[in-house]
Amino acid sequence: MLGIVLSAGSVYGRAGRESNAGNRSAGDRKCKGIRMMKKNKVVYLISNGDFRDSAGVVCWPKQEETLKGVKAALAKLGVEAKVMNSYDPKRKHGFITKQCEGAAIVSKLDPKAPVIVVLSCWAYSHNVSGPLQAHKGPILLLANFDGTWPGLVALLNHSATLDRLNVRHSRLWSDSFTKDPLFMKRLETWCRKGTISYDESHLTDASKLKLSSAALSFGKKLAADILREKRIMGQFDPGCMGMLNAIINPAKLGAAGMPVEYLNQSDLLAEMDEVDEEEAQAHLNWLVKKGTWFDWGTDQYTQLVHGQVMSQMCMYSAAVRMAQRYGLSSIGIPYQLGLMRCCPASDLVEGMLNNADRPDVRDYDTGKIIRKGDAIPHFNEGDMGSGVPQVLMHDIYARKGMPVETTLHDVRWGREYDGKFVWVFLISGAAPPAHFGGWKHTKVYRQAPMYFPLGGGTCSGVSKPGVITWARFYERFGEIGMDCGTGEVVEVDKADLQDRLNKTTSVWPIANVHIPGYGRDELMATHMSNHITIGYGDILQELIATCLHLGIPTRVAGDVRHTLG
User: Fold this and answer.
1) Shortest CA distance to 391 belongs to which of 314, 482, 322?
2) pLDDT of residue 28 exceeding 50
3) How do beta strands 466-476 and 479-489 pair?
4) For 290-325, how does the pLDDT look when each residue is reduced to its tens digit (9 = 90+)?
5) Using one digit for the tens of pLDDT, what is the confidence trace for 357-372?
6) What is the DSSP string of 48-77?
7) CA-to-CA distance for 27 and 437, rounded, in angstroms?
8) What is the pLDDT of residue 41?
9) C-beta neighbour count of 1 within 10 angstroms
10) DSSP of 105-165, one letter per residue?
């Protein structure tokens, strides 16, 4: 056993993580929650959505389909469903799009009323999570298990955000609702008790596992270096996407040797203006010579055009120089709310930053190339919960002489393939080309107008087969933690690959991943985010040892825990 003492109040002793009935004491929750649910046969449904009406219009038919399934399931249990927000003919959808709208709806509820947040598409969790902080009744996050927009990603994000805000709640998901016996059983339990509990035996406290002496020594040395030298993390405008789980208490980060440099995206725009056209064109020429394929068009409103990519090349130079100026170990650009109205997407830029093989950028003052031959870890969407493991994994890979590239992905969807549950990990275009086998396997498509009105290119490809280490850092109920494990990127056949892309977002980078012992229901029950961080190669023991020496409580998920038990 690893002789490291975890801090008091860590996540491991918190039984039944899904228990919920507001912020009352445990005894009060148990008694009053059950009585209330038996007496009250009405459950209130809330449809949360994206800030952007353009997304709401496209996604509303799927939401109507999901609401229909939820109402049918409740009716089968003899429970009336009252929909709190319905179709708005002016906006052509019925989603909550802002926190003030969420607050207005929650204000109409009895403070002890049972609430279901119904999710079928990406939604800004703060629209409802803030208003629900003072709610005393049971809260259920219910999603369709469908890769289209997708609801399950929103569920994981909402759950992590509510955890970050210390709000008890339950999770539930299904791909067929009334035809899903386990879903119906769990929904009935929630309707009676106001809570759903899940088996967490797939998780193990890492401090109870046996690590090699080499890994322990490695982790001790790296942790000491981090605590002494620091790894400053540059986070632009945190929270602008509503992912409050992406914001970690800076006191806790600093205590682990990873202080935050809070940056403003307007300053990134100003830095972009300093990059001349010749430098930007040189970056684009470099990508083309490397074999990168661009899906060029002529209509800037629906297609990828030269000007969009030139703006991205300016952003790339600006981000590299800002990382150098502030001495950053990593950088995170949220992009969407804010920059989406000012410049093309950041995704191609992010893929370039995350890749060791990337165009040179010179320091204005010294004329020297900045971090040549090294990746500058970029945590997509400004998600610090990915930034922390990306920094740790980068340092571990570098010290072991392994490829340093990391990325986060959305846990987008998954299904059986060749007798295994294979996840679709997908992100909006920011994975490093090294994960695809290099720039010659990289394709740049225009981002979808419904999310990205000013366009910009993705950094897209199919992740190559191989062993991976995955991780997720988080803060919940005032305590930080790290979940991690190993898995493999699986090579699926062409027909299955295309079908997976068609059922999700075909222009985004994909990794088809099998994590033994961490399949659909295990991950959906306990994963601490909609995001998961991956890198190639098994560095699990070194990651665990480093985390524990930094004072980060760590859990190992999936079957790999048995090899260390």
Assistant:
1) 482
2) no
3) antiparallel
4) 999 999 999 999 999 999 999 999 999 999 999 999
5) 999 999 999 999 999 9
6) B--S-HHHHHHHHHHHHHHHHHHHHHHHHT
7) 55
8) 83
9) 8
10) HHTTS-TT--EEEEESS---THHHHTGGGG--S-EEEEEE--SSS-HHHHHHHHHHHHHHT
Adjacent-strand bridge partners of 453: none
233-236 vs 139-144, strand pairing mode: unpaired
Percent of the chain surpassing pLDDT 70 = 93
Q: Give, in order, the Cα–Cα distances in Å from 269 to each of 82, 177, 334, 432, 499.
A: 45, 46, 13, 23, 38
If 0-12 CB within 10 Å is exposed, 13-18 middle and 19+ buried, where does residue 228 land?
exposed
Per-residue H/E/C for 8-24: CCCHHHCCCCCCCECEC
Q: For residue 512, what are the β-bridge partners?
A: 424
Which helix or strand (DSSP H or E) is residue 398 part of?
A: helix 384-400
Burial 11-40, CB ≥16 within 10 A → b, else e: bbeeeebbbbbbeeeeeebbebbbebbeeb
Residue type at 388 in one-letter notation: V
Dihedral through CA 427, CA 430, CA 436, CA 441, nearest 10? 120
Q: By three-state DSSP, how is residue 462 classified?
A: strand
Q: Is-contact 143 122, C-beta < 8 A?
A: no
pLDDT tens digits along 532-542: 999 999 999 99
Query: Are the beta carbons of 144 and 66 closer than 8 angstroms?
Result: yes
pLDDT in tens, 83-124: 999 899 999 999 999 999 999 999 999 999 999 999 999 999
pLDDT of 392 higher than 50:
yes
Do residues 407 and 427 lie in contact, with contact meaning Cβ atoms separated by under 8 Å?
yes
